[in-house]
Write a structure and sequence with these properties.
A two-stranded antiparallel sheet has the order 1-2. It has 80 residues and is mostly helical. The protein has one domain. The longest helix is centred in the last third of the chain and has 10 residues, at 70-79. The chain is built from 3 helices and 2 strands. It has helices at residues 7-15, 50-57, 70-79; strands at residues 23-25, 32-34.
């Protein structure tokens, strides 16, 4: 099940550029997802829906120190 809603996530992030810091993008496949280390509250506004919307529109995506997602890292390790 793919949780990323196509361009809806891009539109949301472009509407609120300050939230881009919580979005990870793989340098190899360009898959986007939210940083799993993102806290539950990222703004000072009480009742804010930013975290909810990011998690609704993107799946969690961890990156290694080289900026690769787990799938790309696995593929590159197998090619060596």
């Amino acid at each position: 099940m793919k949780r990323q809603k196509g361009n809806e996530g891009e539109i949301y992030i472009n509407s609120f550029p300050k939230l881009k810091k919580w979005i990870n993008e793989c340098l190899c496949c360009y898959e986007k997802g939210y940083n799993p280390a993102m806290p539950e509250k990222i703004t000072i506004v009480e009742g804010s829906l930013e975290v909810y919307n990011i998690k609704r529109l993107f799946k969690p995506l961890s990156l290694n120190q080289d900026g690769l997602c787990p799938q790309c890292e696995k593929v590159l390790k197998n090619r060596k």
